[in-house]
Amino acid sequence: MDSNWERWKRPIRNQLKSGQAWLRGYPFYYTRQLNPEAVDRYTHCWSESVTPIPDRGSAEIRQNRLWNLKQAASRIHYLRLDPGQIFSFCDRVGEPTLANGFREGPVFVRGQVETGVGGGLCLIATNTFRTFLLAGCSILERHCHSIDAYGESRFYELGQDAAVAYGYKDLIVRNPSPVPLQLRFEVLPEAGTVRSSLWGQSLCAWQVKVESRVLQKIPAPVPDGIPGWVVKTVRYISDRPKQSTNWASDYVTTSIYKPCLPS
What pTM does this model have? Predict the structure, then answer.
């Protein structure tokens, strides 16, 4: 019974997730156009984010992580996001399978660090989430990681990460502005980082600041374990780009990371 359920769980979950997206009308607005030849039209940087690539695991795992990052980057670099259009990470990157060109890397499953095909893609999701967040884009769907697996050596600020799992967890963002935008993404192995930036055809009409605050620390299950956290993140936007007044919160989320064993 359990083996039969495991066999059918993934396709059923994928169908349910797809149905939810269609009910909300998201696919009608998905952006799928890479527009590298128009790079000169996008001359104003709205936001950018740099994230370190964790130097963990065997040499093979590190190579596979880098491979997966480059595969995903090739599918979102120079992505055009017109006014009202929606970016879906899972739609753009696709299902992380061997047939789709991905390799095995580190993934978080049920509070544990394991190895699975497509491991490492949450690094790109986290990086692009922060770039979209700082640009003032509408966050339609975002999930935090289930655990704070790396503790103090984590590659993101608590409350500002994004976990993705095809058919289950997605990062979905809308361009709410009247300005066409272009997402750029680079994997920089020599620097050990990934970098994304969002560029507009005109200046951003607002100013953005993001604050994350720990509300609760959850004790670790064992003396050398990693604690959990409850973190509140708030984004404030001002329609007066040159003044630090008139701030209003437009996005609030609470992230819960369960305590776990050392990775």
Answer: 0.91
